[in-house]
Amino acid sequence: MTTALPEHIETVIVGSGFAGLCTAIKLDEAGRHDYLVVERDSEVGGTWHANSYPDCACDVPSHLYSFSFAPNPDWRHAFSRQPQILDYLRRVARDHGLTPKIRLNTAMTGAAWDEIERRWVIETSAGTMTADRLVLATGGLSEPSVPDLPGLARFTGTTFHSATWDHDHDLAGERVAVIGTGASAIQFVPHVQRHAGRLSVFQRTAPWVLPRRDREYRAIERRLNRLVPGLQRAIRARMYALREMWLIGFVVSPSLLKLGERVALRHLAKQVPDPQLRAKLTPNFRLGCKRVLLSNDYYPALSQPNVEVVTDRLVEVRSRAIVTESADGTRSEHPVDTIIFGTGFHVTDPPSASRVRGRDGRTLAEHWAEGGMSALHGMAIAGFPNLFMLVGPNTGLGHNSIVLMIEAQVRYLLDLLSQLDANGLAAAEPTVAAQTGYNDRLQRKLERTVWNAGGCQSWYLDANGRNTTLWPTFTFEFMRQLRHADLADYEVQPATTTPRERIPA
């Protein structure tokens, strides 16, 4: 029996991945128990529930890819597989008593700020409710992106995205096309290669691939982690420091990236003996400009006799084929039974932004239409009172664990709420000046990074070439900035005033 939605609640959290669970746990710890987590899927886990493709794993070390307040001594691998991470998130939700506060199979379909009542009116697939605060914890990797290929609608075979993997579909003996060569594709391509009769990998840009320093943790290591909690904290601290050092090359001294490039090229030369294929797989931009990938079996899979790497431009999809065009205009037809998209997600244009309307009635997407995504500390947005977006604009990382950023944002949110309560304030939103100044400073820092000047077109950049995805410096600097909320950055609404009497803090 499904319990009806509450008519009104203090805080609605959208999403039950790392960000949503962290918010719920910290609200409980602060004595703020009047909240509800709405999750569109049938289980908690967010992207780690949705992405169940074969060999799905994390490219951040396990001890870093977990909450600081909920260490897991039982990680099985240095880089955890998707089932391990999903089990961890389930356990965290269960151990912290969150299950009664999570409404599964409930998608947020719309939300609008009611300026008169000073609350959010939230529409879901299970009904409508109101809330004082709305926390968008949907993350940047939640909405699969499928390219609008000419003729795709008339393809008569099977198609699916890596994030919606069709586990019932048998690839044995099939002619399979994989479109995209990003972080997901390099993980599932070896699986497809082992089963398909013929595999065509359509590559627009060759990625940088480094060896994956993975191993299985021994039983004695896991036991020591359980018996000596300080040991796991020390391991985590070491991993954190090593990962932060990557940023020196990305931001401070790009010449240091040449060392990583040499390692990657040796990895390529060792695993791909064919010079023609090796040329196709050699990147033509600086390491780090796109996401750096880790794999030990991607290159060997591409070297198998049943695989072809296609670098010609994809121009058309036919009923059972994909047509490409070479630089000299020659067209080729590639017979295909199944198309698998490894084309990533809507990161710089999240669909959730089209579902949320602020004070002026315009959606978040409309606010961002010209200048791209923008927020104060990647979470609070002018014109949207009491809306908090976790893992929002410019909070992504090219070198470390996003969980660090999530915890910093949630600490900031709790501090802001405490200050609002202490001052008798009902609502807050950033001033335009504070938000604009913050983002102008970020963009100036990003100009000098390899992500902006590395010679590639990546998903870090939006349609206007603006990097609205990544944080431009060390994570400890982000954590320092978000240690305390500054009410001077906000316009606030005292609980005793009329809606129009918004005043600077």
Give a concise summary:
By secondary structure, the chain is an alpha/beta fold. It has helices spanning 18-29, 47-50, 82-95, 185-195, 219-227, 229-252, 257-271, 275-280, 298-302, 364-367, 402-422, 432-446, 450-453, 475-481; strands spanning 8-14, 35-38, 102-103, 108-114, 119-124, 127-136, 158-161, 175-179, 198-202, 209-210, 293-294, 307-310, 313-318, 321-325, 331-335, 338-341, 356-357, 387-389, 425-430, 490-494, 503-504. It folds into two domains: 8-143 and 346-504, 3-Layer(bba) Sandwich (FAD/NAD(P)-binding domain), CATH 3.50.50.60; 152-213 and 239-341, FAD/NAD(P)-binding domain, CATH 3.50.50.
The mean pLDDT is 94
Count of DSSP strands: 21
CATH architecture of the largest domain: 3-Layer(bba) Sandwich
Total number of helices:
14
**Main beta sheet:** 8 strands, mixed
Low-confidence stretches: 499-505
| End-to-end CA span | 46 Å
Name of the level-1 CATH class of the largest domain: Alpha Beta
Structural class: alpha/beta
Helicity, in percent?
A: 25-40%
What fraction of the residues are assigned to beta strands by DSSP?
15-25%
Q: Can you tell me the number of structural domains?
A: 2
CATH level 3 topology of the largest domain: FAD/NAD(P)-binding domain
Cα gyration radius (Å) = 24 Å
CATH superfamily of the largest domain: FAD/NAD(P)-binding domain
Describe the global form: globular
